[in-house]
Design a protein that fits this description.
Layout: H1 6-9, H2 22-34, E1 40-45, H3 51-63, H4 77-83, E2 90-94, H5 101-110, E3 121-126, H6 133-144, E4 150-156, H7 164-167, E5 171-175, H8 180-193, E6 197-198, H9 200-209, H10 214-227, E7 230-231, H11 233-240, H12 245-256, H13 260-272, H14 277-297, H15 301-304, H16 309-319, H17 324-341, H18 347-359, H19 367-389, E8 392-394, E9 405-407, H20 430-444, H21 446-452, E10 456-461, E11 464-469, H22 471-477, H23 480-494, E12 499-504, H24 505-527
Parallel strand pairs: 1-4, 1-5, 2-3, 3-4, 6-7, 11-12
Antiparallel strand pairs: 8-9, 10-11
Helix pairs in contact: 2-3, 5-6, 8-9, 8-10, 9-10, 9-11, 10-11, 12-14, 13-18, 14-16, 14-17, 17-18, 19-24, 20-21, 20-23
């Protein structure tokens, strides 16, 4: 007997062998058990999620002489005929190759004859969205008032292409992508059935590459078993043409460190190994997405993604080295690269160009790059303040006999009304005051409110509330009318007289730097004798 592909060998024969789609399976089972069979079903979903398999199981179940728990028994005469493909009352129709109106008319003429063996004559129309408009019109009347023995099961990957008149006459079931863990379990059964061996990591790689499609996963596994009976992660990556995680971590680290020569060398290594730049760009996009999720969700990433604890910890550690804005900027660039590579004559140049943009982002002058650098500076300042609060602050080696870090005993809390603290931002309640004021401005001065949305609230400095954004919006907000209206809303929300200042991003960066320098000098003078602290500007 000729070899049969794995996805055909492992096509489920009843609902109990379906993987995923639990809600759909339970609904159809209940309909079979109660006899509430609809005259038309519409199965929607991406490829390989079980639409056609479910249609075939449903067609067998409603014709079975003694169904068990909604499944065909597989033993009655009708089931044996269906298994031997000798049953003439279930017809499969491929709309992709039979899209003309004449094909639809031939189909409907045969529908006038009742079933020969079972209770229902079932038409399974695959890729139904490929039918022409005339074919849909010919089908509409029969679909609206079919004979009692006729059941239509329509399957499509693009339901939005179907006319509304067809959609309204069908019971619609949307098939979701199958989770990688469930696909991995079925792949393990397929490997054992084929007499092969596979590592859990290799099966998980295949399951992720299938993107929720069982048929794609079984096809990839079939290719891997074609190389040998032992399937490991190296073999899967070789078949898929993807890069291993260690390489992706090295690549992202080079992007973070702005190591342009290192990035170019790694791309050259990639091309020499015969890797496809398009597949690599997808791998990098997925890797950056993982870093964003790890930075945003922390340890909860294991609840969202199919990751082991060790893998999650590795992504979390690496994610700490980035700002979210920079990761999102790089992800945008690589996602756009996937589209550009489809039309690029020299894909390598496009890949190198985007990678260098990620490396040399500190030399860009656009708003996104500037905000990214401001966010990194804020992170460094926050870290420095934490160290100072703990009593350890690095000073130059010639300023102290021992050099290195100077341990300082914790200081008593200073009076918040003292002049030394007047320039520091007052964060307590400032955010709530700002939100209350902007809520009122949305109703009273919508123009000023819309411009405030184009930037971000910096903080409260004494009685002054500061905002930063682009130079254009800052100039608009600093106009006397807008500034007075915003200050009035802030004063009303705070219960005291307040002022407002709109700064562009460069001004905000300068003020933050000046404030941090002043704070450092102030802390040093409180710890050491004032005469021993000298401030020197360095270029």
């Amino acid at each position: 007997m000729a070899y049969q592909a794995l996805y055909r060998q492992w096509r489920p024969k009843d609902f109990s062998h379906m993987v995923g789609q639990e809600a759909i399976v339970e609904t159809l089972r209940h309909q079979v058990q109660t006899g509430r069979i609809a005259h038309a079903y519409l199965f929607c979903g991406s490829r390989g999620t079980g639409k056609t398999s479910t249609a075939k199981i449903l067609a067998r179940a409603i014709n079975c002489l003694s169904p068990r728990n909604g499944d065909p028994c597989g033993e009655c005469e009708v089931c044996r005929r269906m298994q031997a493909e000798e049953y003439m009352d279930i017809l499969e129709f491929d709309a992709a190759s039979n899209s003309r109106v004449d094909d639809a008319r031939d189909l409907l003429e045969k529908a006038n004859f009742p079933p020969q063996f079972g209770r229902y004559k079932v038409y399974i129309i695959d890729e139904v969205h490929m039918l022409s408009t005339s074919a849909f019109n010919a089908l509409l009347k029969t679909l609206e008032e079919p004979p009692e023995y006729l059941v239509f099961i329509l399957a499509t990957t693009e339901p939005y292409k179907l006319p509304a008149t067809i959609l309204s006459r069908c019971q619609r079931f949307d098939f979701g992508r199958i989770p990688a863990g469930q696909i991995q379990g079925r792949l393990k059964e397929a490997v054992d059935g084929a007499g092969g061996e596979a590592t859990p990591g290799a099966l998980l790689l295949i399951a992720r590459a299938a993107e929720g499609g069982m048929r794609d996963a079984l096809s990839i596994l079939d290719m891997c078993l074609g190389y040998g009976q032992k399937v490991d992660e190296t073999l899967v990556r070789s078949v898929l043409g993807t890069s291993d995680r260690a390489f992706l971590f090295r690549f992202s680290q080079a992007l973070r460190e702005e190591d342009a020569p290192g990035v170019i060398r790694m791309i050259d290594e990639l091309i020499r190994q015969g890797k496809d730049p398009l597949i690599f760009s997808r791998d990098v996009s997925s890797h950056l997405r993982m870093l964003i999720l790890a930075k945003s969700c922390g340890e909860k990433i294991t609840e969202i993604m199919d990751l082991t604890g060790e893998d999650a910890a590795e992504y979390i550690r690496e994610g700490e080295n980035y700002s979210v804005s920079r990761l999102m900027t790089m992800l945008d660039l690589f996602m756009k690269l996937e589209t550009d590579l489809r039309y690029s004559a020299i894909p390598r140049i496009a890949l190198e160009n985007v990678s260098l943009k990620c490396c040399l982002r500190t030399r860009e002058t656009d708003t996104l790059a500037l905000n990214d650098r401001i966010e990194e500076l804020e992170g460094k300042l926050s870290l420095m303040e934490d160290r100072m609060a703990k009593g350890s602050f690095p000073v130059p080696s010639d300023s102290h006999a021992g050099g290195g870090a100077v341990s300082v005993p914790p200081k008593e809390k200073a009076d918040p009304s003292s002049p030394a603290k007047a320039a520091a931002p007052v964060d307590k309640g400032a955010e709530s005051v700002w939100k209350a004021a902007t809520k009122k401005l949305r109703e009273t001065v919508p123009g000023a409110f819309n411009n405030l949305l184009m930037g971000k609230f910096v903080g409260r400095f004494g009685d002054e509330f500061r905002w930063s954004g682009t130079e254009v919006h800052a100039r608009i907000l600093n106009q006397p009318d807008n500034r007075e209206a915003i200050a009035g809303a802030l004063s009303e929300a705070a219960g005291s007289e307040c002022t407002f200042l709109a700064m562009d991003t460069s001004q905000a960066l300068q003020k933050k730097t000046e404030a941090s320098e002043a704070a450092v000098v102030r802390e040093l003078r409180e710890v050491f004798p004032p005469d021993s602290v000298t401030v020197v500007d360095s270029l």
